[in-house]
Write a structure and sequence with these properties.
Chemotaxis protein chec, 169 residues, 7-stranded antiparallel sheet, 4 helices, alpha+beta, single chain, 40% helix
């Protein structure tokens, strides 16, 4: 892989970890454990997901992927509540967690001279509803986390041609 592309993707991985950690600590008040940054899709089996499209200085899509239990815990943490069953309010909270993490990443991208970055509102998906297809070859950077032993992941999906423009001489 092109060394400059590798550096760009590692910078993206750092932004993922920093944004997830910041939101967990300052907004959700939950301890999380971070795994390594990796290329390719995450291994977390999705029960709940949310995606946000980014445009402008960074053309990509952010995904938050969680199991039933980790989605419930993340959403309840945001609401300051404890629930046993999923409902629409928890789904909205999960989308907002994704929005806050993506916002933290956008701030980091803009601070690293990627220019102004726009975001769409979060769109939620559940089991059996795949994330929308990107109609080109993609590069995926992800990081998996655990919250009280339950996995969740954050990933950025870039069209390969965009990623290559970020590293051209």
């Amino acid at each position: 892989m092109n060394e400059n592309l590798n550096v760009f993707l590692l910078d993206i991985g750092s932004a993922i970890g920093e944004a997830v950690g910041e939101i967990a600590e300052t907004m959700l008040f939950v301890p999380i454990e971070a795994g390594a940054v990796s290329l390719g899709p995450c291994s977390v089996t999705m029960a709940h997901g949310a995606w946000i499209a980014l445009d402008g200085g960074v053309m990509a899509r952010f995904h938050l992927i969680a199991t039933d239990t980790s989605a419930l815990r993340l959403s309840c943490a945001l609401l300051g509540d404890s629930r046993e069953t999923w409902d629409d309010e928890l789904g909205d909270a999960f989308g907002e967690v994704a929005n806050m993490i993506a916002g933290g990443m956008v701030t980091r991208f803009e601070n690293h001279s990627h220019g102004s970055v726009g975001m769409t509102p979060p769109t939620r998906v559940t089991i059996g509803e795949p994330f929308p297809e990107i109609r080109s070859e993609v590069v995926i950077v992800h990081q998996e986390f655990t919250l009280e032993g339950e996995p969740f992941a954050a990933e950025m999906v870039f069209p390969l041609d965009f990623a290559l423009t970020k590293v051209s001489p």
